[in-house]
Write a structure and sequence with these properties.
Layout (H helix, E strand, L loop, with lengths): L5 E4 L5 H12 L3 E5 L4 H15 L3 E4 L6 H15 L4 E4 L14 H29 L2 E6 L12 H20 L5 E8 L5 H14 L3 H9 L11 H12 L10 E4 L7
Parallel strand pairs: 1-2, 1-4, 2-3, 4-5, 5-6, 6-7
Helix pairs in contact: 1-8, 3-4, 4-5, 6-7
Length: 260
């Protein structure tokens, strides 16, 4: 059912986005990858996915903080593949600091990339999905769309915004065969999480190992990091016919964090 569908995943050259891309590739979907990184490594990744799964795999390095670049990426992807059936808004950045010390430039960048970029991709994807009477939009929101943590004012704000955006768009397209949902992961040992560990240690005055044990996994009753494979499985399910009546909601994949 999903074989031959076209999926665009922002922030998909590493971490959660790459895991979802690999999960989609196994289902025979064509892909548009997006993100930063070493050009040669990205090209190898693109070529390997295409060859291994016999699918079309494109890459676009659009900066998700730049609306004009996002628009150009969406237009080119639609032109090259004939349209985008599945959109995954995953691109995200993080900064950890007390609110009184939070750099305003970091606030602006986090809101732009984590939240506003989803608006720009979605507004351009929806017309095609409506015309086909089928589409899937999946927003990676985070457990921080449901609960807050100190020193992450911009990130928590952006993810709460993504969840509100998810619900609103779901209502707008509910009669058009298009579903819009959010996945809310707990901590995954992605490059993004690994990069914030030193800042969190500094902000809290503890060691990096204590951050992992007493801050990150303290929130997850399973005491296990969520894996990218688990998140890919949820994303594939949300694209399936079995999930056709699931829309406007969030699925928490966070080891019981929000059950507290």
């Amino acid at each position: 059912m999903l074989k031959g569908k076209n999926a665009l995943i922002t922030g998909s050259t590493s971490g959660i986005g790459l895991g979802i891309a690999e999960g989609f590739a196994k289902e025979g979907m064509n892909l548009v990858l997006n993100g930063f990184g070493n050009a040669a490594e990205i090209e190898k990744l693109r070529a390997d996915l295409a060859a291994k799964f016999g699918i079309k795999v494109l890459y676009d390095g659009a900066d998700m903080s730049k609306p004009d670049q996002i628009e150009a990426m969406m237009r080119k992807a639609a032109s090259d593949l004939g349209g985008i059936d599945i959109l995954v808004n995953n691109a995200g950045i993080q900064h950890v600091a007390p609110v009184e010390d939070f750099p305003t430039a970091k606030w602006d960048a986090i809101i732009a990339i984590n939240m506003t970029s989803a608006f720009h991709t979605t507004r351009m994807a929806v017309p095609y999905m409506k015309s086909k009477k089928w589409g899937r939009i999946i927003n990676l929101a985070s457990a921080h769309a449901l609960v807050a943590s100190p020193f992450k004012s911009a990130y928590v704000t952006s993810k709460h915004g993504v969840l509100g955006f998810t619900k609103t768009v779901a209502l707008e397209v509910a009669e058009n065969g298009v579903t819009v949902n959010a996945i809310c992961p707990g901590y995954v040992l992605t490059p993004l999480v690994e990069m914030q560990i030193p800042d969190t240690a500094k902000a809290r005055g503890i060691t990096e190992e204590q951050v992992k044990r007493d801050v990150l996994l303290a929130a997850q009753p399973t005491k296990q990091f969520v894996t990218t494979e688990q998140l890919a499985g949820v994303a594939v399910f949300l694209c399936s016919d079995a999930a056709a009546s699931i829309t406007g909601t969030s699925i928490a994949v966070e080891g019981g964090w929000t059950a507290h």
